[in-house]
Amino acid sequence: MAEIVRMPKMSDTMTEGVVAKWHKKVGDKIKTGDLVAEIETDKATMEFESYQEGVLLYIGVEEGKSAPVDGILAILGKAGEDYKPLLDAESKKPAEKAPVAPEPAATPALAVSKPAPKPVPAPAPVLETAVVNEDRIKASPLAKKLASDKGIDLSRIAGSGDNGRVVKRDVEWFRPGSFIASQSVMPGAITKESFEEVAVSQMRKTIAKRLAESKFTAPHFYLTMEISMDRCVDARESINAATDSKLSYNDFVIKAAAAALRQHPKINSSWLGDRIRTNHHINIGVAVAVEEGLLVPVVRFADSKTLSQINAEVKAYAQKAKDKKLQPSDWEGNTFTISNLGMYGIDEFTAIINPPDACILAVGGMKETAVVKNGRVRVSNIMKVTLSCDHRVVDGVTGAKFLQALKGFLENPVLLLGQSSI
C-alpha cells in the first residue's frame, strides 16, 4: 500500500525545509537506510535517509523548493500503484501542519517561494554631445552664468542632469583642454535606480525569528571592560613556538570564559519563564560566520579542555559550518555564547543574547593603546569585551564580577595553564 514520506523535523527550530538535491528519481526502488535527498534546514544541509521501503511513485517537492515540516515530501509504494487518492485525501485535511515563520511585512513579495528574479543591470549612462549653437544647449541658468564668468564654452561640456542638461557641478568639474563633451560622470557609475531581491534562506529566517524574540523579550543590558592582553600575547607566542601549535587569542578567551563561569555560575543560566535554570556544565557556543549568517557550534565542557583541544574543536566546527555539514548535536546545548569580531577590525560591539543563554560575550580586537600605570605612560595591547545580560536572570553586579574574573584570567594566563596541560 502506498505511503506518504513527510518532511522531517531535523532540528528543534525547523519549521520548513528546502530540498537541495534528490538522490532518487520516480521509479527507483528504495530500501530502508537509502540516501533519498539532501534537505536544507535553518542551520545546515543534511542527508535524509528513508525509513520506509518501496518504489518512489511521486516527488512532492522539487529541488530548490520548500515544504513545511510534515508536508508531503514523496510517496512510496508498489510499482504502478495509484497514489492520487492519498494526495486527494491530504488536500482535504484541515491545515494542521507546523506553522511557517511569518515573512516581514515590508517584503511581501518574498512570501511566495519562487526563484529569485535576476538582477536587472543598469544601462550605461548615455552622454549627449552638446551642439555648438548656444541656443540649443540645455543648461541651468546658474550653469550658464558660472560658465560665462569662467569663460567656458558650454558646448564643450556634457550635462549630467535630466536629458543631458548642464548643471552647476558640470561647469565646476570642467577642466580647460578636456575633449568635447567631456564625461562628467565617473566611468562605470550607476545613474539609474535598480535593485536585486533574493528569497530568504531557511537559516536567515531562523536567525531573524530567534534574535527578534531574544531582543524584544529579554531585557538586555550591557557591561564593557578593557583588558590588557600583553601577557596573553607573550603566552601565545611562547606556546606556539614551543609546540608548533596555532593557538588563537579566541582560544584563550574561550578557556578564560569557561574558568570565569565556573566561579560565577549565575552567568551560566537560562530563563525558563517560571524558573531559572543554573547549569552545572559549561557548554560554550562559538559564533561562526558563514555565507548566509551565523552558526553557533558548541564546545562542550569547555572548562575541562586544554587550549589545544579547544583550538582543534573550533577549527573543525568552523570548517563543518562552511561546508554545511554541522549536525544538530553540534549546535545544541549551549549555556553561554562568545561572538568575536576582533579579526575584522572591530574595536567593540554589543551582541544579542543567543537563547536559551542568559548572557553573550562580544569580543573586540586588540589595539595598541597608551595607558598610565604607576604614574608612567606605556603602550599596552588593549582588548574590549562587552557582556550582554538578560536582566531577568543576571544583575549588574553579577555581570561585573564575571568580567573581573575574565579579566584576571586573560591578564594572568598562567592561571589557565595551571589548570591543565596545554
Q: What is the gist of this entry?
A:
This protein is α+β, with helices and mostly antiparallel strands and 422 residues long. The chain has helices spanning 84-92, 141-150, 168-173, 202-217, 230-243, 249-263, 307-322, 328-331, 396-411, 414-417; strands spanning 3-6, 16-22, 29-30, 35-40, 45-49, 54-59, 66-68, 72-77, 220-228, 269-271, 276-278, 284-286, 288-290, 293-295, 298-299, 336-340, 359-373, 376-390.
Taken as a percent bin, the fraction of beta residues is: 15-25%
Average of per-residue pLDDT values: 82
SS-derived structural category: alpha+beta
How much helix is in the residues? Answer: 25-40%
Shape by Cα distribution: flat
Low-pLDDT parts are 96-117, 122-134
**Biggest β-sheet, characterized?**
6 strands, mixed
> What is the total tally of β strands?
18
> How would you spell out the order of helices and strands?
EEEEEEEEHHHHEHHEEEEEEHHEEEHH
The helix count comes to 10
C-alpha Rg (nearest Å): 30 Å
Beginning-to-end CA distance, first to last residue: 60 Å
* Main sheet strand line-up: 9-18-17-16-12-15
How does this structure look, described?
This protein is α+β, with helices and mostly antiparallel strands. The chain is 26% helix and 24% strand. It has ten helices and 18 strands. The chain has helices spanning 84-92, 141-150, 168-173, 202-217, 230-243, 249-263, 307-322, 328-331, 396-411, 414-417; strands spanning 3-6, 16-22, 29-30, 35-40, 45-49, 54-59, 66-68, 72-77, 220-228, 269-271, 276-278, 284-286, 288-290, 293-295, 298-299, 336-340, 359-373, 376-390. It has a six-stranded mixed sheet. A hairpin with a 4-residue loop joins β4 (35-40) and β5. α6 (249-263) packs across α7 (307-322). The longest helix has 16 residues, at 202-217. The chain is flat, with a radius of gyration of 30 Å. 31% of the residues are buried.
